[in-house]
Design goal:
Layout lengths: L5 E4 H30 L8 H23 L2 H15 L5 H20 L7 H14 L7 E4 L2 E6 L1 H12 L4 H8 E4 L2
Parallel strand pairs: 1-4
Antiparallel strand pairs: 2-3
Helix pairs in contact: 1-2, 1-3, 2-3, 2-4, 2-5, 2-7, 4-5, 5-6
Amino acid sequence: MFSFKKKITEQEVAASFVLFSFRGARDYWPKVKKNIQKGFQKISFNDERKAQLDLALAIIAQEMQAVENLFPQEQAERINRWVLNIINTKEDGEYSYKTTFRYYVKFKKELGNISSGGDPLSVIPGLLLENWLGQDIRNYTLKIKDRQTDILDPLLLSVASGVLSCFLGYFKGIKEQYKIVQT
């Protein structure tokens, strides 16, 4: 038996994904903030709009990695270019583009360094925490033998990882439901 999938363009997929990410970040933000502040009372978010934006960008960067595993290389590159073009708006475009690209590049670097101790799974959650906390991130790094390290508190890192894991699988679902065609 034949199954026919509805067609959707790469641009439409990218746009729906960006919308999904921003809506998800906006809708999930109150719960994220509450859970983080419940476990880490000293954490405050001075700019909640930026914190939500940072969450959306981390979701986007994380899922862009999946695109490369799910689609042929040329198609994956086109979809990811569409995503980056769509987030490059007048209001937050430069910040959004640079932040997402930074997440993406650092993840790739850690992925390439796995054999020498790279940790790609902690990169995006760690950078998200860095964006949320700014200089205060030093208050959430481990001390070993009375020396401050750059190692983030594992509990806080796991909270950020858990938040991001709620948004995994968007492109996998799209691929299963639609035939994605070039724009």
